[in-house]
Amino acid sequence: MSEMIRVTLPDGSAREVARGTTPAQIAADIGPGLAKAALAAKVDGEVRDILRPLEADTNLALITNRDEAEALELVRHDYAHILAEAVQALWPGTQITFGPATDDGFYYDVKAPESRDPFSMDDLPAIEEKMREIIRADKPLRREVWSRDALIAKWEKDGEVFKAEWAKELPEGEELSVYWSGDDWLDMCRGPHLASTGKVDPQAFKLMRVAGAYWRGDQRNAQLTRIYGTGWLNKKQLDAHLHKLEEAAKRDHRKLGREMDLFHLQEEAHGSVFWHPHGYIVWRELEAYMRRAIDGAGYKEVKTPQVMDARQWEASGHWGKYRENMFVIPDEVPNIEDEGPLVSDAAEWMALKPMNCPAHVLIFRQGIKSYRDLPLRIYENGCCHRNEPHGALHGLMRVRQFTQDDAHIFCREDQIVGEVQAFCKLADRIYRDMGFDGYAIKLALRPDKRFGSDEMWDQAEAELRDAVVRAGLATEDYGWEELPGEGAFYAPKLEWHLTDAIGRTWQVGTIQSDRVLPDRLDASYVGEDGERHRPVMLHRAIFGSYERFIGILIEHFAGRFPTWLAPVQAVVATIVSDADDYAKDAAARLEAAGIRVETDLRNEKINYKVREHSLAKVPYLLVVGKREADEGTVAIRTLGQEGQRIMPLAEAIAMLKGEATPPDLREP
Description:
Layout: E1 4-8, E2 14-18, H1 23-30, H2 32-37, E3 40-43, E4 46-49, E5 58-63, H3 68-90, E6 95-96, E7 105-111, H4 124-136, E8 141-147, H5 148-157, H6 161-168, E9 175-181, E10 185-188, E11 205-214, E12 223-231, H7 235-251, H8 253-259, E13 263-264, E14 274-275, H9 277-296, E15 300-301, E16 307-309, H10 310-316, H11 318-322, E17 328-330, E18 349-352, H12 357-364, E19 376-385, E20 401-411, H13 416-433, E21 439-444, H14 454-470, E22 481-483, E23 493-499, E24 505-514, H15 516-520, E25 525-526, E26 532-533, E27 536-541, H16 546-556, E28 570-574, H17 580-592, E29 597-600, H18 606-615, E30 620-624, H19 626-631, E31 633-638, E32 645-648, H20 649-660
Parallel strand pairs: 1-5, 15-19, 21-22, 28-29, 28-30
Antiparallel strand pairs: 1-2, 3-4, 3-5, 6-7, 7-12, 8-9, 9-10, 11-12, 13-14, 16-18, 17-18, 19-20, 20-27, 21-23, 23-24, 24-27, 25-26, 30-31, 31-32
Helix pairs in contact: 3-4, 5-6, 8-16, 13-14
């Protein structure tokens, strides 16, 4: 008689089944609907193949399409393997490496055979069709465990040098899992996988692009081709994703930045932004808004050096944990002769600051601080530099030089929760003023590599959690979630994730509770007891960086900034030259009212002018002709709306003045 094991289901019910029973069999016993819907199993919390036998008492949950996040990761993993199989079927001799699931799809790195050029976009339609053929064949996906030596021998025999190299680096004697697709193709993989290729929807994926990639990410190694795809549970999800991509392409801040003449980037200053006059108006409006906000919240603005001695970064801990992302500078006059090295071996080293926090500690340390001085809120629009790889740079979203709306709150232990609560309230107001009604708050918890004791981390995490609870934000409405391992090396942090107009999320603001840096840099205050105490340092930002936040705003509004942020808020355009003097007078009155206005007196048809200023995303176009000049009126066209309104110039100025007023300065 077979040995029995106990399987406990999510509803608390339990079943006695024979050892070796599969989750698929249990699903079938429960009902045919579940048997058809079940994709994989969660065995004691671990996701496994639905056909993998159960060997001991266990807690079992069955994964279906309703468990969307887990189901998507499974199907994307399968799509990646089907992609690799299709490429090898079409071009024998192709070598495969690895292919993971990603946030919206999958990719696989492959090396084309010597008989052909590297894969290109032209190959994608044939690969897609072959993938659909493999899916329609409904090939069983079968797991086997091989010895390390047997698998190495298999890869070497098949000429899979990359797979063989990887397998050789795994511990000797280790058993490795492989997955067969039918009986004619296999890949080394930890799994899990679905039961067969036919479990994925052949109409729910699309290959998107190809790119160069290096084996194991090292440019000294062989160059591969990375084939990217997007994969979903059904065609409806795929179509929605492709539509979002189309919308995102229209909103791309790099494209709109050129069209609206806001900024540019060029190789002479990799990762640094050249702001044009119109773009810098947006920056200045945001900067002025933020200054009013932080002044009202009791912050003191400072300015700190760009370059500091390496010893300061060693003391803070950044030199050891962050040096690869820092620009270092020799502290000596460079050699100006033709012969000899530019910098001597004796040079001391300095670094461009990648962050502002150590400098703010040095300001705190100037003079004796009392417990009565706390909380001390220090703010800086701080320009920082980080040595990002060239390939990682992306418009305004990822740059090397950036300016943070950075602040550090030095406070006593008993002030932490109140300060974090106040920050939550401030951030909420600012995000709503910026046009983001939807956001989520997440608590990033301790990483594996960190400074400080477990007790310190327990306390810091609890304080942030308590502040959000007290603020009433730890709810589903605010997407409250805790993220294990995502904190900084010195502190846990709260993160604000904004949702934009097309449903994308952007992580922007943070607040971090830090007891490490004040200790490392010897910051202290005199307590009520007359003794020295360490302050707690709250690192906080709301925009994150001006560059990235402006990029997000451009894409959120598709370039159609709210009037108070628009570089040009109104254009007065003439129909006939007889109205030129009236147009100039109207523009002067608008400017006197504080409105950023331009005139368009060109000898062009009005429809041409309307189209041109609409493409430039000007919120209001005031059209004037001889009739308007005689009557003292304007014909107002609002960006994105059909038709026009005729109103007296004074009334139009009053309306535009209201629209052009920043949200924090408007009458309640």
